[in-house]
Amino acid sequence: MREAAACGLFILLFDIVLCLAPWAVLVLLECSSFGGLAGVWAFGAVKWAVLHVFTSILTDGKPQAVLRRLVALLCLHSPVFESGRILMAPPEEPYMGPSPNFSLLLLGSLSSSLACVVWEKGLRGDGKTDSNKLDARRLLMRMLKYFKPDTLYLIAAFSFLILGVVCDTFIPLYQGKVIDMLRGQVHQTSLCYAIGQLALVSLGSALFSGLRGGIFMCTLARLNKRLKHLLFQTLLQQEVHFFDENNPGRLSSRLHSDVDRMGRTVALNANALVRSTVKTCLMLAVMLSLSWELTVLTCIEMPLLAIIQNKYITWYKELKDQLQDCLAQNKHLALQTIGGIHTVRSFKAEKDELRRYNEALDKMRTVNRRSGIYSSVFLLIRRLVSVGIKILMLLQARSLISSGDLSIGSLVSFFLYQKPMSNNLKEILYCYGETVSTVGVIEKVFSYLDRTPQCKKEGELAPEKLEGRIVFQNVNFTYPSTPQDKLALKSVSMEIQQGKMTALVGPSGGGKTSCVSLLKRLYEPQEGQILLDGEPLHHYNHKYFHQKMAVVSQNPVLFSGSLRYNIEYGLKDCTLEKVKEAAKKANADDFISELENGYDTDIGECGDKLSGGQKQCIAVIRALVRDPQVIILDEATSKLDVEAQHTVLQEVLARGQTVLVVAHQLKTVEKADHIIFIEKGEVVEEGTHQELMAKKGRYHRLKEELFSQVS
Prior knowledge:
Largest sheet: 6 strands, mixed
Strand content: 5-15%
CATH architecture of the largest domain: 3-Layer(aba) Sandwich
């Protein structure tokens, strides 16, 4: 790359010498006068051949592609420019060839070289396919598809945007016209007409910009709502293990902050990008119509400043990293010395520590000094370039005004365009960078939207009558977050009989909770299957299944809102009479009626206004109101009094429902029709309480440990 740059510099110098040599100028003028425009093209072709040979000599016959493009640009810029000038504004007199002004020839070579540098370094790239850029482009294109429902809004917004930009672009032009009229003797009507035009475009700019901004904000709000709805819907469909791996705070951040940033960045940056691009094109057209010479100088200034600034940013970033390292080192030294002051004092090492700290401060001061020098040099060079270009522009403007090709008002208009033109280019670069920096956020949100739940698809089975017989057939299960060889359940086979009460007991960590989790379909077994009335659980419709199989846990989860809302949670068309009937069956209607607002009482955040026993009562009512055929009581009555426990179990059993109880209270287990003792993920013993006690097995030996809460 350095060799190419060196060769390019030699080629540029050779081209300048070739153009500025007296004999070359004579040849050029003779060709121009003899052949007109054809002579200019002929001289360009001859120069192309000469520079091509010179390039081959420098590169041993293997010129790089960038050098070939530079040679073509240097040789053809003059013929192309002259052809375009004739096509755009045909001369009244016969074409006399290009101007023999040496400064214009030099300006042409330099501007062509600068354009080549900007193209090669900033626009074209290295020619290699960048997978990251392709992915970014793919993600942004996919993001735009979510705007499809807002097509009409976007058409209106971009229409107002273009109208606003057009009005905004012509404001400086009309300001210059008004200035020209103030200088001379013009009719009052013409002056008022010009001022009216200026006021009209100013009013149009404000009006259309306001409409554009309002419609864009409305579209953005609609997009955010749509994306959040889709993302929340996708999250709710994921398996439980997904929520075990991703904490709620991170998911909430993706749902709100990332979606907001994603929509805001793409929508607002697209708005700013289109606005700045259209405005830049219009301003460039107006500036060319005012003075193409001044416009060329402006177009030379901006790329030069951009190249200088990019180089400074690279150096500044390196110095900033060094400064951060120095700050971290100073902080570490201070903390280490102060924290270990006893050791420092014991070894009388205060002077050594002070010396080390001073050395660190000197290092940081050196970095700061270098940063200041670089900043000063950058500002100086930038100011010199700007001042140099401004001087050239003023000299050129003086020449144009003297010849009558430019008025004072037009010059003022040109300078009014120059600053916004630079700001528009900066905004385009900023919007591009900001959009690219958001690609990571967009990719993460889309990864959630595209994620397929790692669970079996629900079926359509929803029989009118369900018996409630549950069978485990050789079930092997391990939690996704644990190694596959650590099974929570090992070839578990058992039957929960319909219409009877089955108790699942065993030591802590034996597998009781795993069985309940599988029955709730929070997880899927790796091997074997669980049958409900002879059908696998995933064959049933999801909503039907969870209505017919109700689970009441030891620590039920309640939501903020009214008591009735928590009881009816997930149900439709549930009457208050049905809720009260379920509460009476759970022996809870009395305490609910004593509350200030009865069933409409606000229970606070997560039910914190209720006691533990009251929460369990609400959970039991929530299960009974669904009229399930299978009820799983996972320590669900541990915080209820004995009378309430007895009432709940009696009510459930009297209705012929299948009951699975996970309990640590002996009186509850003794009433079970069938007891299953599970330990280390395996079913060890089965039978009634009397049968298991008579066996003198694990159940008998661990009875005191299992039922320590005997009441």
